[in-house]
Amino acid sequence: MNKPAADQQTKPKPDLAARSRYPAGTIVFEEGEADQSAYLVVSGKVDIQVSKGSKKVIVSSLGPSQIFGDYALVDNSPRSATAVVVEPTEVVVVSKQMIQNKLKGADPFLVAWIEVLVDRIRGLNRRLHGDG
User: How many structural domains is the chain composed of?
Assistant: First the structure.
């Protein structure tokens, strides 16, 4: 699969998210990449895949109202999976800066709790995939 650019992308205003449309077969991001965005599926379908040796294993299929790529916005870790568009898909692209701006005003306990939960989920994922 190749990684073509989004068909259309609208530029966000400050504190507003951009929308992008992707054709089937688009790789939104790849496992191991650094990225500064999360994605909310408006329409369409995206598969989340992880590498298992030389194979790609689908660990989740996401549709409207589901979010992917969100852990990287909290803990600055590289992508733990690859996101592949299965059918024409529209997403809202949420930047790391937008999330950080929202977290600045949040209760410090809740921010710490989110960080702990993301760390635990990443640890579980590593164990499930034999990486830790």
Answer: 1
CATH number reported for the structural domain that contains residue 94 in this entry:
2.60.120.10
Q: What is the pLDDT of residues 66-120, one digit of tens each?
A: 999 987 777 778 888 999 999 999 999 998 888 888 888 889 998 889 888 888 8
Task: Specify the 3-state DSSP secondary structure of 5.
Answer: coil
3-state class percentages of the chain: helix first, strand second, coil last, to nearest 5: 25, 40, 35
For 12-51, what is each residue's pLDDT tens digit? 444 557 899 999 999 999 999 988 899 999 999 999 998 8
- Per the structure, the complete domain to which residue 110 belongs is given by 8-128
Ordered alpha helix ranges (H), the chain: 71-75, 96-104, 108-128
